[in-house]
Design brief:
The chain is α/β, with parallel strands linked by helices. About 45% of the residues lie in helices and about 20% in strands. It contains 10 helices and 14 strands. The chain has a 6-stranded antiparallel β-sheet, covered by helices on one side. A 5-stranded parallel β-sheet has the order 8-12-13-3-14, sandwiched between helices. Helix 4 runs parallel beside helix 6, helix 5 crosses helix 6 and helix 5 crosses helix 8. The chain starts with a strand and ends with a helix.
Length: about 375
């Protein structure tokens, strides 16, 4: 993996081990940037929501990432990402430019852990929606297409609702057409989400037993439609959306926004039947998030037959030695995993590299 003018790496080449690689060193030394570069190649963006321009090295007007990947079936994939201030970002896969970045999502499955992602557990519903959208999009191309189409129609519908709030004489047929389109995509999204939760929750509960036999986690999907579960058909969900939009039409016109849909849904995380963000300790919330991420790895592997790359940033802080050992035991079977840490950790089955030693060997 080549990094050129990316974050604080002017020029760096990094080749992780096939198993577990730990990069250790001081904070601010560039460890996280190594993971972010891999994430860019897998998902075409950084993982903390930063703009592309924020990944430029100081005083640089471009960055380049050039990575080579190998699937479990030993199919090679080369990914090159070039960003220039004055031009759009370019994605080149196997020496051919990919114009529509969404076509690349899922080609290199990837899971992450970062302290910034604690918001998945204790943050806003939007943070949890990003988690579930990311998880499903990497395994279901239709879901990603529906999600992108839904956002486009939602923007159009909200714009028309705003026009209606100022001019009641506009034809309602346009709103009806947009509502039908939105309901179709919304039904597909919600159906996929509840199916995902039904399958994922079982994997998550089984994996969590490695961390605690006294704590029972659970995940529920909270829809603005009310009680929707895996037995609810697409047609039923579609009809419920149409009914709901009809009921709230006057209110939506008054407020000039769409009040129902997957863009307002949420996930509820429980630990021993109590909502985790209200009652759990910081340690419990961190362990819950780690469990979510590691269960996501197993979900991907079962669905795709491909072990995703694990990018785990500062995963061990605030964890006791016993829990660290539990995580290492699980990761031994996960395939390629790259971990950052302020301290050297691991055993004989782990490759530990100091970020400073890499720089001292001529990598800058």
């Amino acid at each position: 993996m080549l990094y050129n003018n990316f974050r604080n790496h002017r020029l760096l080449t990094f080749k992780p081990d096939d198993g577990i690689t730990i990069i250790y060193g001081k904070n601010g030394s560039g460890k996280t940037s190594l993971l972010e570069g891999v994430h860019y190649c897998a998902l075409t963006k950084g993982w903390i929501g930063a703009k592309d321009s924020e990944y430029l090295s100081f005083a640089s007007d471009f960055f380049l990432l050039d990575g080579s990947f190998l699937s479990n079936q030993e199919a090679p994939v080369t990914v090159k990402i070039v960003y220039k201030k004055e031009n759009d970002k370019k994605l080149i896969v196997n020496h051919s430019e990919v114009k529509k970045f969404s076509r690349h999502i899922g080609r290199i499955p990837c899971i992450t852990f970062s302290p910034y992602e604690m918001v998945i557990v204790n943050g806003s519903p939007a943070d949890r929606r990003r988690f579930i959208d990311n998880a499903i999009s990497q395994t279901n191309r239709k879901y990603l297409d529906d999600l992108l189409a839904y956002r486009q129609v939602l923007m159009q519908r909200n714009a028309f609702l705003l026009q209606l709030s100022d001019n009641k004489s506009l034809p309602k047929e346009i709103l009806s057409l947009l509502t039908e389109q939105l309901s179709e995509h919304a039904a597909s999204i919600v159906s996929a989400r509840v199916q995902f939760i039904a399958a994922f929750n079982n994997l998550f509960r089984e994996l969590y037993e490695h961390f605690s036999v006294d704590e029972e986690p659970d995940i529920f999907y909270r829809s603005t439609l009310g009680n929707i579960n895996k037995a609810s058909s697409h047609d039923l969900i579609y009809s419920l959306f149409l009914e709901k939009y009809e009921q709230t039409e006057r209110q939506e016109i008054y407020r000039a926004q769409t009040l129902t849909g997957p863009h307002r849904d949420d996930l509820q995380f429980l630990l021993n039947e109590k909502e985790i963000k209200k009652y759990a300790s910081q340690g419990q919330m961190r362990t819950f998030l780690i469990g979510l991420k590691l269960a996501q790895h197993q979900y991907f592997f079962e669905l795709l037959g491909e072990k995703p790359i694990c990018l785990l940033d500062d995963i061990f802080s605030e964890l006791d030695a016993s829990r660290v050992d539990d995580i290492f035991t699980l990761l031994q079977t996960f395939g390629q995993t790259i971990i950052t840490s302020t301290e050297k950790k691991g055993n004989c089955n782990v490759t530990a590299l100091s970020i400073e030693s890499l720089k001292n060997n001529g990598i800058k």
